[in-house]
Write a structure and sequence with these properties.
CATH topology of one domain: Helicase, Ruva Protein, domain 3
CATH class of one domain: Mainly Alpha
Helix content: 40-55%
Oligomer: single chain
CATH architecture of one domain: Orthogonal Bundle
CATH superfamily of one domain: Ubiquitin-associated (UBA) domain
Shape: elongated
Strand order of the largest sheet: 1-2-5
Length: about 280
């Protein structure tokens, strides 16, 4: 079969691979479109095997929300260099993967890799992209969030290195969406360990108490006040690591919980946080 320009363009449209690579793939497969796709996939898979030991510390955190904000997905996709991470091909792929996960209600990596993306599976598209860009690329994490009795807000920090989703119970209004986005920014910026102090594991709390006690003893503090010192430091630990107890970034004199309570009292809403997710690249 003759390798025509239209055939090359069709292969490019299906795979996103450059024209020259598409032309070579078609020539190698006598113009068979499906075999050419497989050829490009194998080229990507071969490159991935060769670069299996390469570090993928760059990439992007992307999210997608349903129009009604009842469902949301956040993904982390990694590559080797910042140059590739900032490129249009990688950025488009990352956004497409997040949208595919949302549209198909996917919450695990295996299902995501098998999902359809523009006529190919996500894995097939990923293999082709690796062949085109010459770098190891991998989908590292995915999380699916729902808020049937409320709404979801999101925030992706400039550069797509950090991102977060926050699910709320309550009525979706312009004002509650605005406050919700600010709280999503808080989650991304301040990296809370948990929504409430009860959600922090007892192992973590005991480890913190042990550290505080050891330091107090090493500093020669009187034994009769060590328990008080440990208690005070633990309170500070909660204030720094529990979202509702953190100082609100937009008004540091108040906690996030106080801001929510004031908003509800003023608006008549019943806004509360049901879940938070934060992804940090690498």
């Amino acid at each position: 079969m003759t390798v025509t320009l239209d055939l090359i363009k069709e292969l490019r449209a299906k795979t996103g691979v450059g024209m020259a690579d598409c032309k070579k793939a078609l020539e190698e497969t006598s113009g068979d479109l499906e075999k050419a796709i497989e050829y490009l996939r194998k080229k990507g898979a071969s490159l991935a095997a060769k670069r299996a030991d390469k570090m993928t510390n760059e990439g992007a955190v992307k999210d997608a929300l349903s129009d009604d904000r009842k469902k949301g997905v956040i993904v982390e996709i990694n590559c080797e260099t910042d140059f590739v991470a900032k490129g249009d091909d990688f950025q488009k792929f990352s956004n497409d993967v997040a949208k595919t996960a949302l549209d198909n209600n996917i919450s695990d990596l295996d299902s995501l890799l098998k999902a359809n993306l523009n006529g190919l599976s996500v894995q097939e598209t990923l293999d082709g992209l690796m062949g085109k860009l010459g770098e190891k690329i991998e989908i590292k994490k995915i999380e699916n969030v729902s808020a049937e009795d409320g709404f979801i807000t999101d925030y992706i920090h400039f550069g797509s290195k950090l991102g977060g989703l926050v699910a709320f119970k309550g009525n979706k209004t312009d004002e509650s969406l605005d406050l919700g986005r600010k709280i999503a920014m808080q989650v991304v910026a301040m990296n809370p360990m948990a929504l409430t102090r009860d959600a922090i594991s007892s192992d973590v709390v005991e480890k913190e108490k042990e550290i505080y006690k050891t330091l107090a003893v090493q500093e020669g503090k009187p034994e009769n006040i060590i328990d008080k010192i440990v208690s005070n430091k633990l309170e500070k630990f909660y204030q720094e690591n529990v979202l509702l107890e953190q100082s609100f970034l937009q008004d540091e004199k108040k906690t996030v919980e106080e801001i929510l309570n004031e908003f509800n009292k003023k608006s008549g809403n019943t806004l509360s946080i049901s879940k938070m997710v934060r992804f940090q690249l690498g």
